[in-house]
Structure formats: C-alpha cells, structure tokens
Amino acid sequence: MKYTLLLMVLLMVVSCSQESPEKITDIQDYNIFLSDVESKKTSKYFEQWNSMIKPDSMQLMSFGIVAGEYSRYFQETGDISQLKMAEKALKKAVDIAAIGKSGYQRALARNYISQHRFKEALELANSSRSIGSGVIESQKLLFDVHMELGNYVDAEQYLDSIKNMSDFDYLIRLAKWNDHKGDLETAINFMEKAKENAESSKNSSLMLWSYTNLADYYGHAGRIQDSYEHYLKSLKLDPQNAYAKKGIAWIVFSYEKNPEEALRILDSITKNYRSPDYFLLKAEIANYMGDTLQLTHNLDTYAIAVDNPSYGAMYNVYNAGMYLELTEQFHKALKVAEIEVDNRPTPESYHLLAYSYFKLDENEKALEIVRKYIEGKTFEPTILYRTAEIYKATGEYSKLAEIKEELLGAIYELGPSMESKILNL
User: Fold this and answer.
1) Signal peptide location in the record (predicted)?
2) Helix, strand, coil in percent for the chain, rounding step 5
C-alpha cells in the first residue's frame, strides 16, 4: 500500500511539473510601474496654445498643436473624449489651412483610423496625396489605410513606393506586411532593424513603439522571455504605458497560468486608464477562474463604457467577440459582423460573419464565407480556431487536421482555456 501511495505522489509531482512552465516574470521587475498615478490632461504648454483659440479663431498653428496634445492625452489615458477633441481641432485646421493643408488632412486621417472610420480616412489620404505636398508621408498613410480596409494589392504598391531600408517608417510597415503574409520570422527581422534605427537616433517615441511591437511579435513566435524583456524596456521609457503592462499581464496569465496576479496587474491599469477592452480581458480571466461575480462585473463595466456613442465602430470586433464567446447573443453578433464587413471588408471581419452563422447553426453559409474570404488570407490564431470549428461541423476533416497542428503551437496567443478545446477539435 505504501508503494502505491508513493507512486501516486510521484505522479502528482511529475504532473505538476509538466503543467507549470518555467517562470519568466518577476514581480520585483514590474511592481514599481503599477503605482496609482493618473495621467495629466493638461499642461502649461497646452493651456498657452488652447487660450489662443476663439470661436471665430483663424490661429492655424494653435489648432494643430492643441490637436497634437489631445491625441497624446488620448494615448496616455484611453479617454475617448480626448480623441474627439483632437478631431474637432484638426477639422478646423483643415478648413482654414491655405498652406500645409495636406499635413492636417493626414493628421485627421490618422485620427479617423484610431476611430475605425477607415473609409473617411481613405478619402482624406487620397486628397492629401493629390495636393502633392508631403508625397512620401501620404504614401505611408495610404499603405496603412489600405491594410486596414483589406485592400492588400493597393497596400503592397504603396509599400513599394516608399522603399528605403534605412527608414524607420518603411521598416515597420515592411514588418507588418510580412506578418500579414504569415512570415513571422522575417517580420521580426525587420522590426529588429527598426529598433536599431530608433535606438541609434535616440528617439524615445520610436524606441517605445518598436519595443512594444517587438514584444508582441516575440510573443507570437513563442519567445516569451524576449517578449517580457521588451515590455519592461517599454515601461522604463514610459512607466505609465498601459499596453506594456497589459502585455506582461498576458504573459502571467497565459504562459505562467497565474490569473490572480494577471488580474492584479490589470486592476492597477484600469484605475485610471479608460480603454474598455481591458475589462473584457479581465472578464476572460475571471471566466477562466470560474469567478462568476468578477466575470459579470467586468462584462457590465465594459458594456456601460462602450455604450458611449463617441466610440462609434471602434469596439465592433470586441462586441462581436463578447456576444459569441461570453454572452451567447448570436443574433447580436451577426448584426455587428454585418456592419463590420461593410466598414472593413477584411478576413478578420468576414470571420466574425462566418462564425456568427456557425453559432446560429447555418454551417453551410459559414463554410461558404470561409472558402471565399478567409482561407489562405490570414494566419491569426483565433480566426484559425473558429475556422477549424466550421470545418469540423461541415466534415472538412483534412483541412481541420492542417489547422489543428498549427493551433497547438499557438496556445499561448489563444489563452490557457483553449488547449482542451483545440485537442477536442
């Protein structure tokens, strides 16, 4: 009997060691960045320029500078009202500008991209390009907009038009293009070159951008230690950077299987940072923990936040995901997916449409959408998993087997609750 008990203990030890991966994070590394500090929404510099703006003002420079400050406050706080104020100032600048209009149009287009108003952004980008001032900057913008709209042939042409291997802006777009094609190794290579470019120029904003994006790419590639280190580098440059903290929280949750600590990190962010999607992530973690109270609270908080009409279409994808996975409101998901396809006809949008039909037991319609708009056009793990479910339901077993193997290598990206679901496909 004692040998049986000993064997059981040994089996438990082996099992636990298999389930607990090597620990990557250290609370001592990031705790200092979790302090409760609210980002400022004003400064003497801002007040000086804002005071120059009157109802009938023609102070062009004032509008441009104030818009830039509002945009910065939005990045730091996640407060949508700041982005809308930036839009208002930029629209006035576009209206009154005689010289430099194309630059203000580009700035307003980028504001619209942030708001997911992609068709309006494209109109402004084309208008800016036609003026003929700042041609390279307009071509960079046009690449960005066409990528968002799923116009990949046009995007590639604009990418070719700005080719310059020593230019940071070109390198990061080249990385994005290769990631879109599914060549993650090449994407990382170009992003690393962009990082070197930023570091050699000692440009802190470009360094921050390259660190957070590299951290994401490293995570996709399973290089979790490198990902963690680059999120920490980001925080050393910007201690209040919510995105980097969120990245560390995901490592703690998905890789280290420590949902309580991940929630602690996210709680420190959401005290002051107002981006609603953080509450959806908290809901996902609470669901994994089986904590119904926290799940409901975070879903309610998210729903109240995105009810603000200022968000427009910005959270359509998140809303559809919530309806499909957490609240099972499939008809609502379908309506949102239809709007998103019209707004942004990408494989990502079409997969929401296909999966909504699948959840409504219209499997053949779902498969038709997959074949026409998704197959071979995206490598995003969530889309591949949902596509695999549709393949299974429609008897496409050979295609299912191919995707299943790829999905098993993407469990970190999908989250710890997905491993059993993938194995059961």
Assistant:
1) 1-19
2) 75, 0, 25
Range of the domain at 227: 163-239
Distance of CA 363 to the CA centre of its chain: 29
| 424 and 331 both lie in a single domain | yes
C-alpha to C-alpha distance for 368 and 32, rounded to whole angstroms: 51
Closest CA to 219 of 24, 385, 27: 24
CATH number at residue 374: 1.25.40.10
Q: Please give the structure tokens belonging to residue 77.
A: 């706080």
What the block records as the tokens of 191 is: 């992003």
Answer yes or no: are the C-beta atoms of 261 and 246 closer than 8 Å: no
Paired tokens of 137: 């900057």
**Distance in angstroms (rounded) separating the CA atoms of residues 35 and 40:** 15
The per-residue pLDDT for range 17-26, each reduced to its tens digit, is: 345 568 999 9
Domains in the chain: how many in total? 2
In whole angstroms, how far apart are CA 127 and each of 97, 101, 224? 14, 10, 43
The Cα–Cα gap between 349 and 140 comes to: 23
Q: State the residue for tokens 């708001």.
A: 115
C-alpha 283/C-alpha 318 separation (Å) is 12
The whole-chain average pLDDT of the chain stands at: 90
The residue to which tokens 């990557």 are assigned: 24
Locus of tokens 């070197």: 196
Which helix (H) or strand (E) covers residue 140, if one does? Answer: helix 135-149
Q: Model confidence over 184-234: pLDDT tens digits?
A: 999 999 999 999 999 999 999 999 999 999 999 999 999 999 999 999 999
Chosen domain end from 181, 206, 239: 239
